[in-house]
Write a structure and sequence with these properties.
- By secondary structure, the chain is an alpha/beta fold.
- 39% of the residues lie in helices and 16% in strands.
- It is built from 15 helices and 14 strands.
- The chain has helices spanning 2-19, 25-28, 35-42, 68-81, 97-102, 117-121, 164-175, 188-196, 207-214, 244-263, 270-273, 279-284, 291-295, 301-309, 312-319; strands spanning 45-49, 52-53, 57-59, 65-66, 87-91, 108-109, 125-127, 132-141, 156-160, 181-185, 202-206, 223-225, 232-235, 238-240.
- The strands form 4 sheets. Strands 8, 9, 10, 11, 12 and 13 form a 6-stranded mixed β-sheet that branches.
- Helix 7 (164-175) links the parallel strand 9 (156-160) and strand 10.
- Helix 4 crosses helix 10, helix 4 (68-81) crosses helix 14 and helix 10 (244-263) crosses helix 14.
- It is globular.
- The chain starts with a helix and ends in a 29-residue tail after the last helix.
- Belongs to the bacterial solute-binding protein 3 family.
- Keywords: Signal, Transport.
- Residues 1-17 form the signal peptide.
- This is Amino acid ABC transporter substrate-binding protein.
Length: 348
């Protein structure tokens, strides 16, 4: 009888445990399961950025933020609130950025972050569409006689810790059986300052970052970015895993900027396109259909984004391209029909 009672208790415990609700992944990681509702109720977006990389996210002495990553945040705010300034920016270094997103401290991470499998799974992040296709490079002084990866043997090389660049450098040097000394810092400014003060003979980072930061060196003409690419670096915003509604919103905000360029819609010709007879354009801008409403936001969310921020070309040009100080060619960041990788799924 005692054995039967014990067996019955075990069975009851099994049934009770089986009936316990299984927590969603986002609940396990402490991230709200309805971030869209939370952000709308709050009345502003909290966006994690670097704040230290001109062209992507940079805050000047007056406290004004600018850059491609910043404009992605503003585009989300424009979609939600018809106000691109309804954003609170949070500066995060490479080491702390993922924790801030996982804990719900920020709603979205828009911080020149490389999309990798490990970050997309083990780190509990959900990556959005790529906003900048990049590759890792190396910058050296012109009088260093360093021209190729083999010339980095036995050199001190600066890199930012907690980044894919640190790992990629190790992989490339190991592949060539090349000894070197990594000189790493958590802060991007400290990394480039160390290079400027000749603490290291070379510095590695995303090629775009090297080109941009080279212009800020005391003697930019004495430095060059080598003609080599060490890795693929698809830079993309990310949100916490397990919240499909919020991920959908951020994803389609990015796609809006790309699709607007594809359709030839800009901040300057938006008004005339709102009265277009073209069915695709009318659906895209929310004049017809219910794409926005079906996602839980205003039906004209795409028009709001374009009105305030422009299409992808406008965002790129003012921050990194022809209208910026950097004049970076678009290269892989051209539209698909112009030989690039930028492509948005259909809005239907």
């Amino acid at each position: 009888m005692a054995a039967f009672t014990a067996l019955l208790c075990v069975a009851c415990l099994f049934v009770l445990s089986a009936c316990e609700p299984i927590p969603e992944p986002n609940q396990i990681r402490g991230v709200s399961g309805d971030r869209l509702k939370t952000v709308i109720s709050r009345g502003k977006l909290v966006c994690g950025v670097s704040g230290e990389l001109p062209g992507f996210s940079f805050v000047n002495k007056e406290g004004k933020y600018s850059g491609l990553d910043v404009d992605i945040c503003r585009a989300i705010a424009a979609a939600l609130f018809d106000d691109p300034n309804a954003v609170q920016f949070r500066n995060l270094n490479a080491k702390e950025r993922f924790t801030a997103l996982q804990s719900g401290e920020v709603d979205v991470l828009s911080r020149n972050t490389t999309w990798t499998l490990g970050r997309d799974t083990a780190s509990g992040l959900a990556f959005m569409p790529v906003v900048f296709y990049d590759g890792q490079g190396v910058m050296v002084r012109k009088d260093s006689n360093i021209k190729a990866i083999a010339d980095l043997k036995d050199k001190d090389i600066c890199a930012q810790t907690g980044t894919t660049t640190e790992q990629n450098l190790a992989d490339q040097m190991r592949k060539g059986n090349l000894a070197y000394k990594p000189v790493v810092y958590e802060d991007v400014n400290s990394t480039f300052n160390a290079y400027q003060s000749q603490r290291c003979q070379a510095i590695t980072a995303d090629r775009s970052a090297l080109v941009v930061r080279r212009t800020r060196l005391a003697d930019p003409e004495n430095h060059e970015v080598l003609d080599l690419v060490l890795s693929k670096e698809p830079l993309a915003p990310a949100v916490g895993d397990g919240d499909a509604r919020w991920a959908d919103l951020v994803r389609w905000v990015v796609f809006t900027t790309i699709n607007a360029e594809d359709l030839g819609i800009t901040s300057k010709n938006l008004t005339e396109n709102l009265t277009s007879a073209n069915a695709e354009i009318r659906r895209f801008l929310g004049v017809d259909g219910s794409l926005g409403k079906d996602m839980g936001v205003s039906n004209d969310f795409t028009a709001r984004i374009i009105k305030h921020m422009g299409n992808y070309a406008e965002i790129y040009d003012r921050n990194l391209g022809k209208d910026s100080d950097f004049k970076l060619p678009r290269g892989q960041n051209e539209l698909w029909k112009n030989g690039g990788l930028m492509y948005a799924p259909p809005f239907r």
